[in-house]
Amino acid sequence: MASNFDFLLAQKDYKIIKKTAMEAEQSLKTSYPKSVILAERAVKLAVRWMFTHDAGLALPYREAIARLIHEPTLKKLRPEGLDSLVTYILHLGNIVAYRGMTVSREEAVLALRALHCSLSWMAACYEEGFSPRPFDEDLLPTGGKEANPEPLNLLALYKEPLDGGALLPQRKKNRETAKALAETREKTGNGSIVTVPPDLLAECRSRYIMVDSAQTGWTLGKDLFVNKEVVGMGKKTSVDLLFTDAEQKPLAVMAVETAAQTLEDGLARAKEWAAALEEQHGVRPFIFLQREGEYWFFDEARDKLRSVYGCFSCADLARRMEFRRRHDPEAHPELSDDIANRPYQQEAVWRICEDVHRGVRRLLVSTPPGTGKTRMAAGAIDALFYQKAIGKVLYLADREELVHQAYEKFRMLLPDVPFVNLLGDVREEEKADIVFTTATIMMDAVNESRTETGARLYAPAHFDLVVIDESHPSIYEDHIMLLNYFDATLLAFSSLPPTAPGEDATYRFYDLAPGKPTFCYTLDEACRDGWLVDFTLRDEAHEEIMKPHLRYAELTDAQRRIAEMEYSDTGAITSKDFDVPAVNNWLFSEEKIQAMLEDLLQHGKKTRDGKLGKTIIFAKNSLQAKAIAFIFQRLHPEYGPDFIRALDVRTPGLAEAIRAFSQPESQPTIAISVDILDTGFDMPSVLNLVFFRKVHSLSKFSQMLGRGRRFCRDVDGEAKDKFLVIDYCKNFAFFDMEK
């Protein structure tokens, strides 16, 4: 039987893709919804196939389909318009599976046409001499059903695991063929012989509006109306799209037809609709435009259009309308001393609030580690809640451990606010006002978390404020999809001074003048005011072996982004040494480890009774950390088995071990940290830091130094005025820091 997907027979590697695409085509005889879900499945299989068979595509840290689809090395290859086709297929399959939506034959056929174009492009990439054929509707079977008689079965089909398992092992298995196919793709001009037909692109974009609205929870004829006639301002008019609440009071209008001409024309028409509805209902709806597949929101208070990812949900529009009515920028609540109790913390909170009220969309606070960024964030959120400026907050951290720490701290600071940690128990996810997670986990949640009706929980306006725990160059790659997806004010914290290398790019990202953050409290000010302490440096690096070949300030932008990835959970995969290979020989040498430990015992800062103070040794990996602990215990059994301990993610009873180390009178005295105590760990009594590893991230290095900076009023009866840093790896030279 002839099929539109016969061209896939040319390659045996396409077998599962061909089988699924042909099943999608044949399902038109029995069920249009099933045809759509199979088309969606074929797209996923094709994307996974490309990542396992093309060495030129960068495999992302997580293999979720959303990450693969948007991976930059794949995205830049796709011909113009293909993204819209793929998005239509994936999201149509999504609402059919989760919401049990009916599908017309026209919609199912459109999905097949989009699939045909997508798979034709894939074939054109990897087959020299490939000749694309137009889609032939005469080959399609007749019959079929619009309704979905077995929604649960289709949801099970949608969720059925894709064949092949994890992608990384497959990529390794296909290493040689993957190189050859990447070369073939380059010869074919990345499949440039296939282009997206204009009529297909226009129809996918036109129908996608209804797909997107359904995915966000709207129901046609219930709270979403097309070409709705309204009377106001002395005349009748027809609204392209009208979104209402349960009582059919207007929440938003969207101009589509007039916006297709120009955004200005669409905005003028939408303003007329908003005025008419305001006259009729006493409520002015929000204004949206849709043009060439892109959505725009009109901020009337500031007379500005801004790009948004898609339709806002009913709940989110209702919440923002309530804030528009009740927002009181003059309300000046008392800041609790339990949250922000230092003068600079309170100043930061009010500076943040003032900028939010002025409509500033991106804010950056620059303060050194140890000055309480979590308290500043909590204070600002508490004040903005009180002023009815925000209602939902997303708190993003680079590393899972930092997510847990921030979550626990907020539970203490704001005990009455509903929270959820997406790395833990998510049963109350829908009710949470503050969500804590990493960017990678949040991307999965955007696609997977559902409301009771099967709609996406995290629609584009779900959050009013997004907090970035630590801003550094790598966030532009880690977070950019989320920051583009959520229509929210962005509040970021940086531990680096405004003049640090690479910070100019950071300030451009936040639409700030170089060196002009929203609020800045410097290290010198913190030390002068007595909140932080300075340190003494011992440089013990071997000149010949540790001589740096590069300095941080000399790195290219690409190298700096790689270096900064050390700060995140992806660091183990993406970061790399910029130095000579002999570095590892030095760090893993028993002789050098022994010399380091003896130097620490001799020169390490002591408590008043002459005992070694609390010490953190920063190690490269678990193997090195265990070697350090073993050698110390062999050399100095007199200190006992608990005096030194290696801490990594696999340490049994890790939380208890950290608590024990944080108690000045408890053991261990020396903790060997493998990315455990490097950031976010508060222990004022730490007196010694030993860098027995290279650090390439300036943000992380600043945080690591911060583990010793906290002032302590009583370290064994004495005030802590300084701490000691011993550097075995020329880190200070790499970062051009004199001490």
**How confident is the prediction overall: mean pLDDT?**
89
The count of domains is 4
The side-by-side strand order for the widest beta sheet comes to 9-10-8-11-12-7-13
How many strands? Answer: 19
Largest sheet: 7 strands, parallel
> Which structural category fits the helices and strands?
alpha/beta
- Number of discrete helical segments: 29
The helix fraction, in percent, is: 40-55%
What does the overall shape look like? globular
Q: Between the first and last Cα atoms, what is the distance in angstroms?
A: 76 Å
Pick out the low-confidence regions: 571-577
Radius of gyration: 29 Å
Strand content: 5-15%
Structure overview:
With 739 residues, the chain is an alpha/beta fold. The chain has 4 domains: 6-215, no CATH class; 224-321, tt1808, chain A (Alpha-Beta Complex); 343-528, P-loop containing nucleotide triphosphate hydrolases (Rossmann fold, 3-Layer(aba) Sandwich), CATH 3.40.50.300; 534-734, P-loop containing nucleotide triphosphate hydrolases (Rossmann fold, 3-Layer(aba) Sandwich), CATH 3.40.50.300. Helix content is 42%, strand content 14%. The strands form 3 sheets. Strands 9-10-8-11-12-7-13 form a 7-stranded parallel sheet. A 6-stranded mixed sheet has the order 1-2-3-4-5-6. It has a 6-stranded parallel sheet with strand order 14-19-18-15-17-16, sandwiched between helices. Strand 5 and strand 6 form a beta hairpin. Helix 1 (15-26) runs antiparallel to helix 2 (32-53). The longest helix has 22 residues, at 32-53. The protein is globular. It starts with 14 loop residues before the first helix and ends in a 5-residue tail after the last helix. Mean pLDDT is 89; it is low at 571-577.
